[in-house]
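agent> Task received from the user: take the single chain below, predict its 3D structure, and emit structure tokens. No templates, no multimer pairing.
agent> Plan: (1) validate residues, (2) run structure prediction, (3) serialize to tokens, (4) report one or two observations.
agent> Step 1 OK, no nonstandard residues flagged.
tool_call: predict_structure(input=
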Amino acid sequence: MHTHSKDLRLTAVSFTAALVFALASAVAPSASATPNDVLGSFQLRDCVEVSAIVSVPPERAAAALPDGYTSSSFIGLPGGPGIPGNSSLLMGVETCQSGTIDGVPVDGPVTFGERVLSVDRKDARPGYHFYAVEQVTDNQQIHDLMRSAGFDITLVPGVGATADAVGGVSEGGSVRIVDEAPVPRLPSPLGQVSIWKDTENSRSALRLTVDRPTAQAGIGHVTAEPNSPIASLMGTETTTGIGAINRFDFDAQVEMVR
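)
tool_result: status=success, residues=258
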């Protein structure tokens, strides 16, 4: 891995501090959510995620979102509003060492990955809200569960994430991320996350509860396949953004929203 300048370290620390401030400042709406139909759940443990956050042109983000969604920047209050005139695309793949799917233990590591746009809060659930552009996994059961809810997920054998003390790589599907993350691990504000997906006839949400999250921030280098949805959204095949190596456990619940 390369040695970075003091400016990079200050930027990474500032980013992490901004996230902690965002969590402390967020106030959840008082309205209660309408009960939804739960299609299934999975719980994954000892996860390492190699991710990147890049800015995309707001007009491209708006074109990728269905009516009723407003793109936002990830840096800001969870669920929006974020920095005006800025739209964030978050991409990451996490490899988890164990877990259960609908209560049944999983044999061996499981990988799950997301490419999502940050959006303003869509319902009363606190935390960060995103809209799913595409997802990947190496697990057939997770693939089938997500597909049943209308998510655009691809089964990709060999998808995965690896990381050490100063960097990491995630790849699989249309995106490869190389992170250079020299900042020490710090607590992360990730707690509750909602990832939305609309089809012609339905609206679904993947609800994540993230436990014991930590993050190493730095630089993330992203390469997308030519003519892929991600390359189209970014307006380029290669770009650089904020990199983060995240470590956590999480519980996921797939809901059909009424």
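agent> Step 4: summary for the user.
The chain has four helices and 13 strands.
agent> Done.
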